[in-house]
Amino acid sequence: MKVTHSLLFATLLSTPTLSFASKPLSFKDVFDFKQTNNTLLSDDGQLLVTSAKPYRGDPTGLVYQLDTNALLASVPLGSKPVINKSATWVAFTQEADLLKTETTKKADRKKLKKNLVLVNAKTGEQSEFTDVKDYQLSDDGLWLAYRKDVEKRKKQLKKRLKNATKTTMQSKPIKKTRCCR
Predict the structure, then answer these.
(1) What 3-state DSSP class applies to 90?
(2) 115-120 sheet: strands from edge to edge
(3) Helix/strand/coil for 163
(4) pLDDT digits (tens, 9 = 90+) for 21-54
(5) What pTM does this model have?
(6) pLDDT tens sequence across 88-138
(7) How far is it, in rounded angstroms, from Cα 175 to Cα 122?
(8) Neighbours of 147 (CB within 10 A)
(9) Where are the alpha helices (DSSP H) in the chain?
(10) In Å, what is the CA distance from 146 to each residue of 6, 93, 149?
(11) DSSP letters of the chain?
(12) What is the 3-state composition of the chain as percent helix, strand, coil, each rounded to the nearest 5?
């Protein structure tokens, strides 16, 4: 028995391990490994939601239907997933991509826009809302409440107002006329 185990072990060690793999693992492949963050399971156990992020790169929000073991939706730049109680909607926050974040000054990073992506858990259809500060899904799935990022809107309106006043409020000399003698 001991001899058989020794022969089996020696055979396994002598077989090259690369014959089982399609190609050898390289250093570049390690950077493609993804780590899951914020993994959630719906209350009814039908949906699994996660955000998968590589070592250096942009996250992807994933929605899996567990009864069919299928990927229902993939949301680019999707992070911080939320499932409502009735498991009819999944919401992801979309932040700026890694390149934009890295090239922006540290003080201005908080000013980068965030979006909201709402995924229908039955059909996989996605709806995007831009410049969202925060949001809340109702438990029954009938309502979505969200606030827009007002600071960006205020700056845009001030800039438009400033440009509008430059063009419309030009001073011209008034022609003097005699009205009374």
Answers:
(1) strand
(2) 78-83, 89-94, 115-120, 126-129
(3) helix
(4) 588 888 777 777 887 788 888 888 888 898 888 8
(5) 0.64
(6) 899 998 887 777 776 778 777 777 788 889 999 889 898 898 888 888 888
(7) 71
(8) 11
(9) 2-14, 27-30, 98-103, 150-168
(10) 66, 12, 10
(11) -HHHHHHHHHHHHHS-GGGTSSS---HHHHTT-EEEEEEEE-TTS-EEEEEEEESSS--EEEEEETTTTEEEEEEETEEEEEE-TTSSEEEEEE---HHHHHHS-GGGGGGS--EEEEEETTT--EEEESSEEEEEE-TTSS-EEEEE-HHHHHHHHHHHHHHHHHHH----PPPP-----
(12) 30, 35, 40
Specify the residue for token string 């990927």: 71
Spatial contact of 83 and 47, defined as CB atoms under 8 Å apart = yes
Query: Which residue type sits at 34?
Result: K
Residue written as token pair 């185990």: 5
- State the amino acid at position 135 in one-letter form: Y
Both tokens of 148, joined, read 């827009």
Question: Whose structure tokens read 């060690």?
Answer: 13
